[in-house]
Amino acid sequence: MGKVLIIGAGGVGTVVAHKVAQNPDVFTDIMIASRTKQKCDAVVKAIGNPAIQTAQVDADNVDELVALFNSFRPDIVINVALPYQDLTIMEACLKTGVNYLDTANYEPKDVAHFEYSWQWAYKKRFEDAGLTAILGCGFDPGVSGVYTAYAAKHHFDEIQYLDIVDCNAGNHHKAFATNFNPEINIREITQNGRYYENGQWVTTKPLEIHKALTYPNIGPRDSYLLYHEELESLVKNFPTIKRARFWMTFGQEYLTHLRVIQNIGMARIDEVEYNGMKIVPLQFLKAVLPDPQDLGENYDGETSIGCRIRGLKDGKEHTYYIYNNCSHQAAYKETGMQGVSYTTGVPAMIGAMMFLKGLWKRPGVWNVEEFDPDPFMEQLNKQGLPWHEVMDGDLEL
Ligand code: NDP
Fold this sequence. Notes:
Elements: E1 2-7, H1 11-21, E2 27-34, H2 37-47, E3 53-56, H3 62-72, E4 76-79, H4 86-96, E5 99-102, H5 117-120, H6 123-129, E6 132-135, H7 143-154, E7 158-168, H8 182-189, E8 193-197, E9 200-204, E10 210-215, E11 219-226, H9 230-237, E12 243-249, H10 252-263, E13 272-274, E14 277-279, H11 281-288, E15 302-313, E16 316-327, H12 328-335, H13 339-356, E17 364-367, H14 373-382, E18 388-391
């Protein structure tokens, strides 16, 4: 049905490659390209399908990307490199007539700032080129938006309150490690919190607001209000929303390490002089922390991510909770990666499948909630991320 090029061979890229290879009726030709070609070759070896091609590419360099796209001629690129590369990859797609999908919004390297404006600015150019760009198609952002669209389509006339709840109740048995790229993860968590209420954004201090929330099959976990990028598109695409928030669980041990990292300056993203050269402390820290890709083997427990929604149907107030629980060990057995990479990589593959099947094909730049959620939801159940619903339960929020 179509040719796919995966860019990035980290934890998420590895899962995407496994899942794409499991669906040969849709993905007829596969290439995985990244900064380090050996990592791509290792992924292909683990999958055991020598027909998957690999290549080296610097995705910061538009010309290199253009040359690669012109030689492989993919129908769609799945960008699971880092958020810094979103715009160069989108540029290369426009120059070569290739469609685009990613899992995280563009961030400039020198400011930790999350907003869609940079990528939304490409809308007209993608429209004019007749190309589709699907933004934020991991779990959160990604499935969180599809869940919201599904709730709006089937269960509510008006969504009024949306809380996205993200719990990782797994244990990797390391003193401190991040579940995905440490640089991206620490930049996100050390930011001010932010949520949307009555048409305005309310800013909080980092991790200032928290409360215990109960997660299915897990129990209560302290959950912290963070800013998360999908809030920006969801309040725009569902204007009846009065309040939208995002919550993520953290253990005390994790938070203590994070506080020390910040207090000693290791979370800094500006350059410092060290032994006659310039280094960025957070990038140096990444080099000494455990690689998130190596956490899978000893990871037990599960993740639980979902949307808790309150709104109106036929004039009456209802609540709705939709979620997925994902076992780290089951993810590891299937793909060699832990649950956080798995829950991101599976939806990225499904988004590309939706495009190639012509179900999510529309010139322009789109967030996932702007497409029909139903075929995507059906695939979540088939591809390893089954979902569950609770109607009119206590949302705790
Ligand atoms: P990793 O750091 O494990 O992998 C990133 C990969 O991109 C690596 O293979 C790296 O190469 C490659 N890469 C980095 N820079 C370049 C470049 N300039 N050119 C080519 N390749 C490059 O990250 P993850 O797999 O954990 O995360 C991937 C993406 O997924 C990130 O954007 C992250 O924000 C996003 N994400 C989204 C989530 C969601 O739910 N929406 C959740 C978790 C992650 P090398 O190996 O050489 O360093």
